[in-house]
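Quick one: structure for this chain?
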Amino acid sequence: MKATSLLHNARIHTQAGGFVADSMAVCRNRIVAVGNNLKYDPDFGSYQRVDLKGRTVTPGLVDAHTHFFFFALSLGHVSLNGLTSIDACRKKIKKHAATLKRTEWVIGEGYAPDLFAGRREPDRQALDTVTGDRPAIILSKDQHSAWVNSRALELGGITAKTPQPAGGEIVRSADGTPSGILRETAYQPVFDFVPPPPRRTIDRLYRQAVDHAYRMGVTGVHSFDGAEAFAYFSELAAGNKLGLRINYYPPATRLPQLHKTGTRYATGDDFLRIAGVKIFADGSLGSQTAFCFNKYLSSPDNFGIEVTPVPELKRLIKSASRLGLPSAIHAIGDRAVANVLDALEATPPLRLPARHRIEHLQLMRRKDIPRLKKLGVVSSMQPSHCPADIMMARKYWGARARNAYMFRTLTDRSISLAFGSDVPIEPLDPLAGIAAAVRRARPGSRDIFYPQERLSAAQALHAFTVGSAIAAGQEHCRGYLLPGYVADFVVLSDDITRIPASRLYDVRVLATVLDGKVKYCDGRLNL
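Got it. Here's what it folds into:
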């Protein structure tokens, strides 16, 4: 695609009032015109003509909730996703460990006890026998629990005498010794010992992650990674090598440093900016640590884990607000969501375009919806979690699951939705996320999870484009295909707003353009 190009014979979803155009003119990295029959306009006579032959164009897809740096690193870990037994996990871990040096950590993720017979959780002995003397840490599918071996427990200083940490749990065997399963904050002492890979390895894995994003039509992400990620992003951005537009949300533990440096909302540039801080209110559904008003049906004494109590939530939100920074607060259980709303009601409002966000919002009391709307809080949700979690939601929440993943209810109340994937927990694939929001069923399945909460494809696309822009306070320059906006767009094989829901999982990205430059093209197009 040349610096001045005119795309025509297309279905261009501008996202502005439902307007669909057939032409779009791009000059360098900006859209200069959108309309119909622009190929006949003499103003664009010198522009390169690109005939899209009826294909669909949308704004670049932006994943509003990722752990993108960790996703990149995970490409070098052992993945246990989809394995249905502890033995299968152990075999794959053993094979991976054989490729490592004897001093290297064994790192992985993806084990899911709900896929194991009787939901039996693994233990440190099962890991010891396949990892030997080297330390090992395997994160669960939801990354709210960790399976560690004896050497890792030793390094983390976790023994039978270690007290339960605030906001976490050391699971213990009958004799009181740590079983090897650590939940929430309990695995941080071990995780802190995990060394980073060599720089050349990080660079290779990051490039793989960015290339994957391009193939999925992703031009930007919201990153909820640690401080080491921001240092890496900053270095790449300084050399114009970041590859994606990244809105970064540092953990709230970094607030003292942010105050010291005077870092304020939107600090950064077109590719890397500070957009808020990340706070955890509770855990997750899969680890049964999401904080709920009612007990988990399979664990009669378990209400989940309150990772951050309301007084501390208030303190952190106020601290961030003094820098103009909104808070993006992880809350999955209905009691955690209510706690977040209580805290936000007790703190001063932000100045727009900064907006507070609740991340995940998987279970919510309906009586809390008016509070959510009144506060103007963005609902940052991950539709791919819905079909993946159907079995667990029914098993652990029972009839309360009708209040889970309420995409349509929130949309009908004009509450802003921003969609993401939570990668690496779910795949970085916005088109699969759109299909999940529309179908609310696993691919090929007719088991629809509360069909009244389904969205249209147009609504789901809005949440991956305009919704993501609103969440980061960038709707004035991102999320739309309009004159003056950056030339971030995607060419799709089909118009997702016109095909049956059953075909959504078959839609493919044909090209991804970021900042006016073609980053991916599958060969069926000549850009």
